[in-house]
Specification:
By secondary structure, this protein is mainly alpha-helical. Helix content is 70%, strand content 0%. It is globular and about 90 Å long.
Length: 617
């Protein structure tokens, strides 16, 4: 009798607690709406408040104690929900174009995200455990080997050919005129990868030679665009064949392959002269090679010749990719540090086998990063390239101080203004744009920085301590496209989703010009690209947000953690290691995030297949 009464009291207390939690959620949402400009009275007396109360009460009445796997899912959901709430908040005019940033909003939204994530954690854990079952068993391998690779390659090239014809001879934009001028003058600089500058110039020369020479270099540009488009197809076909060989069911393989064939970022950047495309190609091959290595590696076995060969090949691709983007080395270092931290944590919890796997992976990435740094130094020495990309790493500090300069101008002393203007020209500071650091970065005084380097960092720290809100907002706005799926600014930084303009030739002896073979399709793509009409289409528009691919990779890592397939985390950490370096760059553009878009679907299916196995580490 006593036990029944105790159970009755506990159940009543639980229901009262659920009522309090539901009421707290209603109040928090009301306060959040008040902070973003909606009157509390309009919300409090609406059916929306009643619906929120009922939804939270029903969810918490049914909630069960969370397991360890549930806590993994809770952490993922908490980060996802918080990123979206903060993203929508800082994108609003009150924060973006003024300085109304509120710590109170951040705290309340964090509490709300906790209340949202707790009841959903068990459902997310159940989903994470069920998804690998969708790829369990064996599936018919139809497109494997050389023939399968050729089929995928031709599939992509056929679907992408209208873009090549429409923008023939290619998309000649971004930094390529300067890179071509460096090639012609044999005077290189490290602002752009030296190897990419040389490769573009050499291929243009080859195309021009094959068509009889002269000042018309359209054939050279067309050859470069075609070869680069083919390289994108090769890397994605390579990944598709790997997924095919794992035995993934046909519907999932078709979904992935048609995503690669139909999503326009791949052909548009495939024919673009930007350096990011070839880097993404090599990055994808390196990531797939790393997945293959994690797939065949057995912790209990000795290092076999097959495993050693795969590891060496993977390292070689990593070294090569670092020559096409300067921050690739920092991405490998970030991944190595993360793997090392997780390895130490595994040792702390008594998981020696896992410690050895993660420790070896961390050491391997450190070696690859060291080799990449040596290779990069060798290229600079051989080409006698001038090092001129120092200001790139100061993008975030420049944005932060420029925001303080513009939004706290009346509160700054004359001495403060003079110190900031010592390192940045006044016109550049006034040209501050929240989403891109280029206007401020281009006004950075390198000579002043070299003269008073320590003073620059003292000034940066001092301004940050006095105006921390401005620093936080400047960082969030500059990186929003990387973590906020609702972001629309990353698609408008260049007044288009991807830049498709055609720049002027370098001189009269190296002429390139637009000669569309499919003008009606080109006009359609240009209108769709500049107007960004895809952002008005629900669900579909999410595919165009760079952040969605980062969250897909994180979700795949969550599935691996729930399934205790720890080696499957390694490729995900490698991919996101590069993503972390973008947080300190000048802006977030779709072309910067192309490596994640190319690798995320492949990695997701790889993790599902790995987690469908019974053995665990």
């Amino acid at each position: 009798m006593y036990c029944e009464e105790k159970k009755f009291v506990r159940e009543k207390f639980r229901k009262v607690l659920c009522i309090c939690i539901a009421f707290l959620a209603v109040v928090i949402i009301g306060r959040l709406e008040t902070l973003i400009g909606i009157k509390m009275e309009s919300y409090a007396g609406s059916l929306l408040a009643v619906g929120v109360f009922i939804a939270f009460y029903s969810a918490y009445v049914r909630i069960k104690p969370l397991t360890r796997k549930d806590w993994f899912c809770f952490s993922f959901l908490l980060c996802l929900f918080y990123a979206e709430l903060i993203g929508f908040y800082v994108a609003g005019d009150g924060v973006r174009n003024r300085h109304d940033f509120s710590y109170f909003y951040c705290i309340l939204s964090f509490v709300l995200c906790i209340l949202l994530s707790l009841p959903l954690a068990s459902a997310a854990e159940e989903m994470a455990e069920r998804l690998p079952g969708c790829v369990s068993g064996r599936s018919g391998k139809k497109w494997t080997g050389k023939k399968g690779f050729l089929k995928y390659f031709l599939l992509f090239m056929i679907f992408w050919s209208p873009f090549y014809a429409a923008f023939f001879p290619g998309v000649y934009c971004y930094d390529i005129p300067w890179q071509w001028r460096q090639y012609l003058g044999h005077s290189y600089a490290t602002w752009n990868p030296v190897l990419h500058s040389f490769l573009f110039g050499a291929i243009c020369d080859l195309g021009n030679f094959l068509t009889g020479g002269g000042a018309d270099y359209n054939s050279g540009l067309a050859l470069y665009s075609l070869l680069q488009l083919a390289a994108v197809a090769v890397s994605l076909a390579w990944g598709c064949v790997f997924i095919e060989e794992l035995g993934i069911p046909g519907r999932m393989k078709c979904l992935m392959s048609f995503f690669f064939a139909l999503f326009p970022i791949f052909p548009l950047l495939g024919i673009s002269t930007t350096k990011d495309t070839l880097f993404s190609v090599i990055f994808t091959i390196a990531a797939v090679q790393l997945m293959k290595l994690c797939h065949i590696y057995k912790p209990s076995d000795k290092l076999s010749r097959k495993t050693a060969g795969a590891a060496a090949g993977c390292a070689a691709w990593m070294v090569l990719m670092s020559l096409f983007r300067n921050n690739a080395v920092y991405g490998m270092l970030a991944a190595a540090i993360l793997l090392g931290v997780f390895g130490v944590a595994a040792l702390f919890f008594g998981r020696k086998m896992l410690f050895h796997i993660l420790g070896r992976s961390s050491a391997a990435l450190l070696i690859a990063a060291a080799l990449a740094a040596l290779a990069g130094t060798a290229v600079v020495e051989i080409s006698h390239a001038a090092i001129d990309n120092t200001g790139e790493i100061l993008s975030v500090p420049g944005q932060q101080m420029a925001r303080v300069y513009n939004y706290q101008y009346e509160n700054l002393t004359e001495g403060d203004l003079q110190r900031i203007e010592f390192y940045y020209f006044e016109d550049a500071l006034r040209a501050y744009v929240p989403d891109i650091a280029d206007p401020v970065k281009n006004g950075w005084d390198h000579e002043a920085y070299e003269k008073e380097t320590a003073g620059y960092y003292r000034l940066w720290i001092e301004m940050g301590m006095r105006y921390p809100k401005e620093y936080i907002v400047a960082f969030l706005l500059n990186t929003q496209g990387l973590w906020h799926m609702g972001d629309v600014t990353s698609a408008g930084i260049r007044e288009a989703w991807v830049e498709l303009g055609f720049w002027k030739p370098v001189d009269e002896e190296h002429l390139v010009y637009e000669h569309s073979l499919f003008p009606s399709f080109k006009d359609l793509v240009l209108e769709w690209n500049s107007e960004r009409n895809f952002q008005k289409i629900p669900i579909v528009s999410v595919l165009f947000a760079p952040a969605v691919y980062n969250w897909l990779i994180l979700f795949a890592m969550l599935i691996a953690a729930v399934g205790r397939k720890w080696p499957a985390l390694i490729p995900g950490i490698f991919i996101l290691g590069y993503g972390l370096t973008l947080l300190f760059g000048p802006c977030i553009l779709p072309r910067y995030c192309l490596p994640m878009a190319m690798t995320a679907p492949i990695y997701f299916l790889f993790v599902l297949k790995e987690c469908s196995k019974k053995e665990r580490v």
